[in-house]
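Chapter summary example.
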Amino acid sequence: MTSINEKATTLLELHRPGNPVILPTVWDAWSANLAVSAGFQALTVGSHPVSDSIGKPDNEGITFDELLHRISQITAAVELPLSVDIESGYGLEPARLIEGLIGAGAVGLNIEDTVHSEGGRLREPQEHADFVGGLRQAADAAGVHVVVNARTDLFVKQVGDESDRVDRAIARLKLAAEAGADVLYPVGRHDDATQKRLTSELPLPVNAIGLPDQDDPASFGPLGVARVSFGPFFQAALAAHAATLLGRWS
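The structure predicted for these 250 residues follows.
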């Protein structure tokens, strides 16, 4: 079996700008095994798909312990490095989050700046960076280089004026980079010019979101992207196909 430190190193090394790692977003052992069978090198777990799979809402509608239970099931079923969307941290301290993730066998995380437990407010830029820094320090103390993917929701929440939104996102994510992030995630669907600006001006590998049933996998490399994940869209595409199949029999 591959050690957790080896998995963490592998996950980090897969992030190559211009030659992005594709991390299918899974939610249980079944979907994870589908991705393994398709030949992927690593996986990510999305909060929205996991929540849907147990009949609860996204935006921290599940508890961290419920998430860890699912992560443990996935890591027991597959050997690939696994990154986990921990939303805004479930109101927990970084040390508790890192302890739980490592204990469940995960080697990466997404941390967003929307605080769901506080009415969906956006953390201030330095506040978010400080939380990222706390996660890095906790991972270092635990002896595992957990791959920290710092996310901002400026685009999806359309916060502030559009005219300077890219500038504000870059400034916010640069603070997260200085605090110890490994990957930066300006989540949203961007035009090519915006995506190129993000990848060229941000100091770390950049995560983009892909639509698995619509996007051209080859389109992300030329934009400088280092990582592509699917968010809720893989599950949604499967659901649409399932509805067609089931509709023939209903």
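To summarize the output: The first helix runs from residue 4 to 13.
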